[in-house]
Amino acid sequence: MSAMREGRFAIASGSARSGALFVAGAAFLWSCGGLFVRMAGLDAWTTTFWRSLFALLSLLVVAFMQHGRATPLKLARIGAQGCVSAALTTTSTIAYIFALRLTTVANVMTVYAAMPFLVTIVAYFWLGERVSKRFIGAGLIAMAGISIMVGGASSVRDIQGLAMSLLMTLTFALLLVHARRYPGVDMTVANVFTNLFCVLVAFPFARHGLPSPHALMACALFGVFSSGVAYTLFLVGGRLIPSAEAALLSLLDVALGPLWVWLVYDERPDRQVLTGGGLVVGAVVFHLVGKLPRGKRREVENSERPRKT
């Protein structure tokens, strides 16, 4: 009997490790979004059009991998709530690309890092979920961090970019709570429609004609890897680990996104962004660690303690 338990524990541990690696891989690919936008060098609408076209094709492949021959029927039966999910994600996606064109990647990622707090606030008003004292304390720290960053905005474009970042984060928070309220929505199908909507909305405003091969390749990488592949990794990995752990691992996106453009394009965040961003990320970690199972929480706390050499 004990051998059976040990075997089950080993399988569960292996699955959890695989889940963590999958989610970390998804966060790594998401973190390249700002880099791909800089590589493309196109205006926001043209970037949205080509990125979403490639994302649409890759997500159709994911949908067929999931549903096989039933895919056309699943797409036809998206339903009203599926359309709501797609509309929210469409708004979030377009706002994200506009934000990246208007301000620095560090600014966008810092606002995005506050998403767990917006999710909790939306869930409080929509689903009646309780708010903990830990959340209130962490939320106040995060607000202070964002205030420091906004106070350091150096131009109107920065302020516009921060506004777009907030719109992106708010609509994505609404999407997550909507998914909790309507768990029957097939998110793969909804994401297919998201990118279809993005293509249709962006087409009238995008530059007609093919971009340069370099720009087209950047949009293809953005659409395929930051959408199709990353979505699949997160979908698989997120089912193997607690949601709070998945959220913590997703913070790799926030940390790595500014790093890539710093290394490749010398886009350096200023001191106020680093200070504000550090407060926001620290507040999010403090908030999410409180949601981890006790065993996982001890692992995180022990890993943060200095070790004797």
Brief write-up:
With 309 residues, the protein is mainly alpha-helical.
Give an overview in words.
The chain is mostly helical. The chain has one domain (21-290). The protein has helices at residues 2-31, 33-40, 44-67, 71-76, 79-102, 105-113, 115-127, 133-151, 156-181, 187-202, 213-237, 243-265, 271-289, 294-304. It is globular. The two termini are 40 Å apart.
Helix content: over 70%
Strand residue percentage: under 5%
Broad shape = globular
Q: What is the helix/strand order? A: HHHHHHHHHHHHHH
**Structure class:** mainly alpha
Low-confidence parts = 1-13, 300-309
Count of DSSP H/I helices:
14
What is the arithmetic mean of pLDDT? 83
What is the number of domains?
A: 1
Main sheet makeup? none
| Secondary structure: number of strands | 0
First-last Cα distance = 40 Å
* Cα-based radius of gyration, to the nearest Å: 20 Å
Characteristic terms for this protein:
globular, 0% strand, single chain, mainly alpha, 309 residues, disordered C terminus
SSE layout:
Layout: H1 2-31, H2 33-40, H3 44-67, H4 71-76, H5 79-102, H6 105-113, H7 115-127, H8 133-151, H9 156-181, H10 187-202, H11 213-237, H12 243-265, H13 271-289, H14 294-304
